[in-house]
Write a structure and sequence with these properties.
single chain; alpha/beta; Rossmann fold; 7-stranded mixed β-sheet; 7 helices
Length: about 220
């Protein structure tokens, strides 16, 4: 559904480029609220430069962050402080993840890069009994609810970017990010597969072109 003409889309893109902010980090506080105060082992899949993994390390005995991009894993290691209980490893989650069990598995803006059913099955297999899986993902817009949330997100995205940057153009990118691609699978398809593989899973469409998935093993 094309709501805005190309000229308006170009203007929005220019504004967003001048006032960038991290849609994924926006959901980190919500994600952390789904987790216990303390837990043992955690795995962050698609860790990027390690921001979420370092937040998890404040509660976990040990955290493993994996990403398929060697450059971004090197950056995550550079940003780590001595004594951080985080190990960053280059690994392709579409092939496999370091053996669990894990008390917590997180996956932010990465699942749409991976084979859906195989990855969710792998997460279930490596999650410890009573553990928590939290996904913040991207889905292809299809249903009316998707388009309505996207429409509401446009002005909010401009407002948040303006406020976070103090009303001034950002001098440089805020952080190193991995290359992403549009999602090919719809929210309805994700919900169907997740419900089959993860009984009792909770999914919700969210603002800023994201959805959340929460499952307790």
């Amino acid at each position: 559904m094309k709501i805005f003409p190309p000229r308006v889309l170009d203007a929005l893109a220019r504004f967003n480029a001048m006032h960038p902010w991290d849609h994924n980090a926006h959901y980190h506080p919500w994600l952390l609220r789904q987790l216990p105060r303390r837990f043992g082992r955690a795995l962050d899949v698609g860790c990027g430069s390690g921001d979420l993994a370092r937040l998890l390390a404040r509660r976990a005995a040990e955290v493993y962050g994996i990403d398929s991009d060697p450059a971004i894993v090197a950056r995550a290691r550079e940003l780590s402080e001595p004594g951080d209980a985080v190990t960053f490893t280059v690994a392709d989650a579409s092939v496999g993840i370091p053996p669990g069990p894990y008390d917590v598995i997180t996956c932010v803006a990465v699942l749409h890069h991976l084979p859906l059913a195989e990855t969710l099955t792998r997460f279930r297999r490596h999650l410890a009994p009573g553990g928590t899986l939290v996904v913040v993902g991207l889905a292809r817009e299809e249903a009316l609810a998707d388009h309505l949330l996207g429409l509401v997100s446009v002005p909010l995205n401009l407002l948040v970017g303006w406020v976070k940057n103090g009303g001034r153009p950002a001098p440089r990118p805020a952080s190193m990010t991995a290359i992403t691609r549009p999602a090919a699978v719809t929210f309805t398809e994700i919900a169907r597969e997740a419900g089959r593989i993860l009984p009792g899973v909770r999914l919700r469409r969210r603002l800023f072109w994201r959805y959340s998935l929460l499952w307790r093993g």
